[in-house]
Amino acid sequence: MARRVLALAATAAALRPLLPKRSRVTTRAALTMHDYDYDVIIVGCGVGGHGAALHARSQGLKTCVLSGGDVGGTCVNRGCVPSKALLAASGRVREMSDDDHLASMGISTNGVSFDREGVAKHAEQLVNKVRGGLEGSLGRLGVDLVPKFGVYKEPHVLDVGNGETMTAQDIILAPGSVPFVPPGVEVDGETVYTSDEGLELKHVPEYCAIIGSGIIGLEFADVYTALGAECTVIEALPKLMPAFDREIAKTAERLLLTNRGVDYRTNVFASKVTPGKIGEKPVIIEMIDATTKEHVETLEVDACMVATGRVPNTKKLGLEEAGIEAPRGFVQVNDKMQVLDKPDGDVIPHLYCIGDANGIQMLAHTASTQGVSAIENICGRTHVVDHESIPAACFTHPEVAQVGLDEDAAAERAEKEGFELGKAVSHFRANSKALAEGEGDGIAKVLFRRDTEQILGVHIIGLHAADLIQECANAKAAGTTVRDLAFTTHTHPTLSEVIDGAFKECVGMHSH
Amino acid sequence: MRLAALWCGASALVVRQQPTRRRLRIAPRMAVSEIAMPALSSTMTSGRVVSWLVGKGDKVEAGDPVMVVESDKADMEVESFEEGYVAAIVVDEGSDADVGVAVGYLAETAEEAAAFEPGAAPAAAAPAAAAAPAGDAPESVSVTMPALSSTMTSGTIVSWLKNVGDKVEAGDPVMVVESDKADMEVESFDEGYVASILVDEGSEADVGAVVALLAPDEASIAEVAAFGAPGAAAAAPAPAPAPAPAPAAAPAASSSSSGWVATPGATTATPKARKLAKSKNLDLATVAGTGRFGRVTEADVEQALGIAKPKKVELVPAVAGEAAAPLGSVPMTGMQQAIAKNMEATLSVPVFRVTKTVATDAFDALYQKLKPDGVTVSALLAKACAIALVKTPLINAAYGASGTIDYNDHVNVAQAVALDGGLITPTLRDADKLSLTDLSAAWKDLVGKARSGSLKPEEYQTGTFTISNLGMFDVAQFDAILPPGQGAILAIASSKVVPIPMPGAALGVGLQKQMTVTITCDHRIISGADAAAFLKDFAAAVENPQSLV
């Protein structure tokens, strides 16, 4: 089967008018396919849609992407990409302002200054470059990129406006998500804003409130504090940084918040946020206790960043009209990314949904992986994404990264499945490279099954954690044992030896 | 990370752990010390003595393992903190003891150990308190520096996670300690209220040293703090908050640059300002806020406490976003007041000014050539002045109050540096004798110190001549005010390209870069001809800059 697919893919372009467009379908089905405009139409052109389109072309499918005018989606335009530019610039300001750190390496500066507009421009230019690259790759591979919105009508059919329809053998929904704004919060885009506007860095507040201590909130706190602002983080849940392993969150709290004079409130809702006007009036934030709902405090700040999560961008997809139930906007899918008509419902034929819209794991690279997986399933090769092996990273200074289960979840699984949980921790402070950089803060923690010695989760906070997690994610995906990993060689002197130390400790070996 | 995490998952290893918990009474020390059941993890509430590694009468050195304890996670060897002789073992092998309870005793001498009867001791758990002399010491619990590894002898407190007055539950992390291998959060084994912090963040303490005191209840915080602080003098970490220099009643909301009146009861001060004020027991309502919307900033609190640090300065005018320009009366900083006083004092000095245009093409070319070696414009200008000063020593002299001309045997060229909210004149001493690279390095060093506020008096008060350079700000010409105690100051404006008659060039006109310099002199000792001579020599040095190298 695989061989046939390859052969067809190689000749598909030349033979297209004569041949069934797809290799996986039965001959009978193939004959009916001439009726469709495309083999696959992807609604949405974010990282998920892009990943799906690239893989579709590599499988020889005739592919169209309906971008809705938003080539690149959230990640490229309003998310991962511009935030990395801001973090890179502000991170340098932070480094160069840290006189003690520099002095310990024999360096002094004549002070650091930055031009806010210049920093913002760096982000904007990066966005344009990355978006250009993404668009270029689609064109080069022969994907038709159409700037229209797609609305689902029925199997194979999309309404693209003005009474026009487009058809495809299979449709993949990849509409992404939009920032969630809690009730009572008024966003004006200037003084009260979400990541959509915040990434434009229109001004640097003196004092900023950040609602939400998730990855987006923490990254913004990192940028703002580096540029000289003070921050208060408001978290509705009883514990800070709910996305992190508890032990990592404690360290992150110290390194990313306390040490930078950032304070926080937990178990508190920002029940009413009234925008201010720059130079005229501050933003007023009224807070209530999450449990008692009683007013606890009112804050006056220059700006309020709302980072309270994201909701699926599925309102205008025509799902309801098509009889597809999507609780809170989340499109229900099975593990092959096929859309279900309701939670645990029936498969809607030839319809897939990937990325933030299905809510399984709202990460750009997860969307892309799901896109590839959906195409595999479309091609008849059953494929299921191992979500537990997908790493996630927070690009603060230092970075936080994780893959798999956190300690609480791992302990729960150990209890349930009756195995012994193993845990090993190693420290950046014992790593030569980290010390050379003067960045000894941080830990790496490996959670594993003592019986099979397979990884359950790895959690890292420290210099370049986001790069260090990949080895662990690959090992987890492949089922490599910590014992095998402990016997692999890690380059000296690199930060990877932090991970090496943890693997060795897992099996009772010493690394230093 | 939590202390406990070190040992998790390491059950294959026997890890050494020292009894990190020591409940010390502040007053009369017992001659016999406890060996207490340590907490080997954050969840451990009791442990079993698997085996004793020592017997009664045995000599124990600090660091010697004395017993093996089984906790919920692992078996661990426990080391002794102190040296001594095992006086008693009160919890037998195989028996459990609650964390913190004495399982054995150490005596200072073999004799004491032999004579020791556990029953006579201020022994096990609660009776300890009752048996102890009820002296003046208020009851308190010491937080000590734990041993985070078997090799650790001292640790640095990276940060305190609790402030004085905070309530601490058993198991709450109270501080972060940096050891040779790791930073760890250290948890409290007791509950109480932080009465005093004896070792500040960033400071080091020996293992076992008391770093903070916990009071049993809120009411006794002051008592414990007063009693426990080392020495009466140091007992007041916050000497009754310095009277705020701000007007007595200056509630933050009273006025602000934007005319904004704060919402009653709203939190307006920044987090750092609030933290600092809380730690120093300062009422924020008494602090005048200079931040946006009248907000109290950390700097305002420092000002109110009289501990204002020299502000970190950006020498390049930074784009500060939409920071509102200050309005209304803002108190001057100490530096600003000193400048004002010095300037007023110059009014009694009769001065005159002489201006000259100097071509800078060659100078700029030389600078571009030497820049990769770290040579700066400031060093080049200082050198040019120094050369001219050596030729006209009168310009380097000062007027003596008793009717003398005080010649200087050093040529010390000061240069004005603008700081955020002030001005200072770091001085390149012996500028005539030092090489350009040495001068450049010295200048960088001085500017760095000026920025951090760490200039020593001899580094900014020993100038014999001053340069004020506004070349980077695109100004055509200006003059400077003579600093007290000096004979002259040179004001250097920006260089500009100007057309000049140039025989032989196309149309007889060529282009030249020029800057205008103006010297201000004390006319009591310096005459116009002296000033002109100096400017001629200065111009010669700039226009033929090889002489500078």
From TrEMBL, chain A:
Domain Pyridine nucleotide-disulphide oxidoreductase dimerisation: start-end pairs: 390-500
UniProt-listed SUPFAM superfamilies: FAD/NAD(P)-binding domain, FAD/NAD-linked reductases, dimerisation (C-terminal) domain
Disulfide bonds: 75-80
Cofactor binding summary note: Binds 1 FAD per subunit.
Essential cofactor(s): FAD
Biological processes, Gene Ontology terms: 2-oxoglutarate metabolic process
Entry GO terms, CC: mitochondrion; oxoglutarate dehydrogenase complex
Gene Ontology MF term list: dihydrolipoyl dehydrogenase (NADH) activity; flavin adenine dinucleotide binding
Binding of FAD, residues: 84, 150, 356, 362-365
Keyword field: Disulfide bond, FAD, Flavoprotein, NAD, Nucleotide-binding, Oxidoreductase, Redox-active center
InterPro entries noted in UniProt: Class-I_Pyr_Nuc-Dis_Oxidored, FAD/NAD-bd_sf, FAD/NAD-binding_dom, FAD/NAD-linked_Rdtase_dimer_sf, Pyr_nuc-diS_OxRdtase, Pyr_nucl-diS_OxRdtase_dimer, Pyr_OxRdtase_I_AS
Keyword Lyase: no
Binding positions for NAD(+) per the UniProt entry: 212-219, 235, 309
Enzyme active site: 492 (proton acceptor)
Ranges where the FAD/NAD(P)-binding domain occurs: 38-371
One Pfam family named in its UniProt record: Pyr_redox_dim
Similarity comment: Belongs to the class-I pyridine nucleotide-disulfide oxidoreductase family.
Name this polypeptide is given: Dihydrolipoyl dehydrogenase
Native source species: Pelagomonas calceolata
From TrEMBL, chain B:
Domain named Peripheral subunit-binding (PSBD): residues: 268-305
Pfam family, one: Biotin_lipoyl
Gene Ontology annotations for the cellular component aspect, listed alphabetically: pyruvate dehydrogenase complex
Biased composition regions of type Low complexity, renumbered to the chain: 249-271
Region (Disordered) location: 234-275
Compositional bias annotation for Pro residues: 238-248
Gene Ontology terms, MF aspect: dihydrolipoyllysine-residue acetyltransferase activity
EC nos: 2.3.1.-
Cofactor(s) required, per the database record: (R)-lipoate
Start and end residues of each Lipoyl-binding domain: 32-110, 140-215
Broad class of enzyme this protein falls into: transferase
BP term (GO), one: pyruvate decarboxylation to acetyl-CoA
Alphabetized UniProt keyword annotations: Acyltransferase, Lipoyl, Transferase, Transit peptide
UniProt KW Cell division keyword: no
Keyword Protease set for record: no
InterPro entries in alphabetical order: 2-oxoA_DH_lipoyl-BS, 2-oxoacid_DH_actylTfrase, Biotin_lipoyl, CAT-like_dom_sf, E2/Pdx1, E3-bd_dom_sf, PSBD, Single_hybrid_motif
PROSITE patterns: BIOTINYL_LIPOYL, LIPOYL, PSBD
Family affiliation: Belongs to the 2-oxoacid dehydrogenase family.
The protein, known as: Dihydrolipoamide acetyltransferase component of pyruvate dehydrogenase complex
